[in-house]
Structures are given as structure tokens and as C-alpha cells.
Amino acid sequence: MSAPMLSRGVLHTPSTLTEMMHLAEVLAQSAMVPKDYRGRAADILGALLWGQEVGLGPLQALQGIAVVNGRPAIWGDAALALVRAHPACVSIREGVEGEGDDQHGWCEVERRGQPPVRRTFSVADAKRARLWGKTGPNGPTPWVTYPARMLMLRARGFAIRDAFPDALRGVITAEEAADMPAEIRHAPGEPRDVPNLAAPPAVTTLDGAASPAAAPSDTSSATVPGNDNEAPGEETSTDPVAGWRAMAWPVRSRDGTCRDMGDPDRWEAEFADRLRTIERHPKFDAAAKADKIRAVLAANRDLLDWLRDERDQGAAVEAVEGLFTEALGADAAMA
After folding, report:
1. Are residues 59 and 97 in the same domain?
2. Where is this region: Disordered (predicted)?
3. Whose CA is closest to 73, among 205, 156, 146, 170?
4. Range of the structural domain that residue 139 is part of
């Protein structure tokens, strides 16, 4: 195995899984590693393996790789170092320009033999994604304390990933990963959100408790209000949409399943992220983008109405509907 790309020390680089496991166990007892890794040899081993994958030495991997929402991510400065060390990297320029909502971070990456890749991230983008002025459970986030740098880091993450996906192996920056909603993971055997395609959309069963739906042409065994023919011994709910009604802040995906985002900030950020993804898709023209955005709204219309009318969350719903209005244009119908 070749030495790590950025290694500068004389420490013997582990060459076998056994050596890595031993090193991980030793480092887990050290106060010199980041606190999230202390006492967690398995997490350290994962970081070492990911570091080896992208070209970071063992100690660099512990400083440069983070586990965010169960996925590996790399801190922006380490990602920048990896790309600068790539033999095809010609130059990387970045900065912050503008004022007010037009203030934006920018990053331009030039790869040998390719046109420069320039990406920006503005205050308006941050507000749309519910990041500007964001606070967390431990107080203000870097979007409050270092907003200009966060704009530049977000632009950097987009630019270096687009220009050098081979250098980063698909790993996103930790700064971006930290702002993403936590993924809802299910334990083995735990019911998942499964749509009942035989039932009308307004009463789709999403809690996984109902018996399997029959083919669309036969609704005799579908779980609908007043239907008593559920499988024997199977627990059912009198509320046909109890799955997402039991959630605090549900969002429906294209396949009909729902996820609970947990709190209003993450809920709004999830919608903002979906709209931003559609708006930036290079293969969608304006009409296609509008259709996609309307499809997202239509899929979540009953959830929005429920949150506003039955949960008294009108302000939060209004904010999300404002995202759709902005994306579609001021005159777009919200129906």
C-alpha cells in the first residue's frame, strides 16, 4: 500500500486490518483525539478507513473526517487540502463579495484540461435554506458567529465536489452535512412508512400497521375506514393516516413514504433543500422545474393542511408555502 497522499510524518502507516484495529483501540484512549472519537474505537477505525480511501494519514483522518447523521463527511479545510494536492489541480480561488442578501461566497476551481468550475452561495440562498441566523440546541451556530466564512465554505464544497469528485470519493463537507436534516433510520423489524396504493390518496395508510394492500382492481382487503377484514391478530388503527399523524413534522417523499423531521427548522430546511435541488438541476428546463416543484407541493398538500388546521402551525406552513411561491413565481397558485 502506498503512503497516504498528504502524509508528512514518520509514523508507520497501518497496512493490515489488525494493525488498524490495534491503532484505533490505542487512539480511543487518548485525549489528543477529537472528543467525539474518545472511547470509540469502532468509529476511529471507520475514520481511518475513510482517510485511507481519500488519501489522508491516520492522524489527519481523525482531525479531518467527521461522522454527521451516521455518514462520513470531511471538514472543508481538509477537503481543500486534498484537492490542492491532486495532480490535476491548477488553481483554487475563493472569497466573499457583495452586501445584504446579495452577499455571497464564491469558489472557482480549475482542473487541468477542463474549464474552470465556479460556484456561489448567497445570503439569499442561506435564508431560503433556513440557515441564516440558525441556532441549535447548544446556542448560535457558525451561521450566526461566522456567517461570511460559512457562505464561502458552502460555495467551496459545491465547487470542489463538482470539479474533483474523484479526489473526495463522493464525501461531502462536514459543514454542509451538519445543516442537513437527520436521516430517520429504522431498527430491524420496525414498521416503515408504506403507502397503501389501493386506498384513496386522502386515506393512504403510511404506518405499516395495516395488512398488505390488494391489487388496485380489488379493494376488498384494503384498510379503509370501517373495514373490519384486517389480517387476524394484526394491530390496526382506527385512523387511516395514523402513521404520519403521529409524527411531529412529517414530509412525504415521491414514493409516498413519510419522514418525521422532528422540529420545524429541519422541516422547513427539508423543503428548501428539495426545491433548491430542483432549481439547480442542469437537465430541467423552466417548465420541467415548475412541474417538479408543483409535484412536491401536491404530494404534501394534505400534510400542510393538517399541520395548519389541526395542529395550529399556520406560521410554519405559511413559511413553507412561501418557499413554493418564491420558487414558482409570485403569481403561482398554491393549489
Report:
1. no
2. 185-242
3. 170
4. 92-171
What one-character-per-residue DSSP string does 34-54 give? -GGGTT-HHHHHHHHHHHHHH
Instruction: Identify whether 60 is part of a domain.
Output: yes
Q: Do 140 and 218 fall within a single domain?
A: no
pLDDT string in tens for the chain (335-residue length)? 444 444 444 455 677 788 888 888 888 888 888 887 888 888 888 888 887 878 887 888 888 888 776 677 888 888 888 899 999 999 999 999 999 889 999 999 999 999 999 999 999 999 988 888 888 777 788 889 999 999 999 999 999 989 998 888 878 888 888 777 655 444 444 444 443 333 333 333 333 333 343 333 333 333 333 333 333 333 333 333 446 677 778 888 877 788 888 777 888 888 888 888 888 888 888 888 888 888 888 888 888 888 888 888 888 888 888 888 888 875 444 44
In the 8-state DSSP scheme, what is residue 173?
A: B
7 within some domain? no
Read off the C-alpha cell for 42.
469502532
SS3 label, residue 123: helix
Same domain, 57 and 101: no
> How far apart are the C-alpha atoms of 87 and 60, rounded to whole Å?
20
Per-residue model confidence as pLDDT tens digits over 245-272: 777 788 888 777 888 887 778 888 888 8
Cα angle 269, 262, 75 (rounded to 5 degrees) comes to: 55
**Buried residues in 227-266 as b, exposed as e (16+ CB within 10 A):** beeeeeeeebeeebbbbbbebebbbbeeeebbbbbeebbb
Asked if 33 and 129 sit in the same domain, the reply is no
Same-domain pairing of 266 and 210: yes
Domain count, the chain: 3
Q: Is 303 found in the same domain as 256?
A: yes
Residue 130 falls within a domain, yes or no?
yes
* Domain contains 40: yes
The count of residues in the chain is 335
Is residue 218 located within the same domain as residue 307?
A: yes
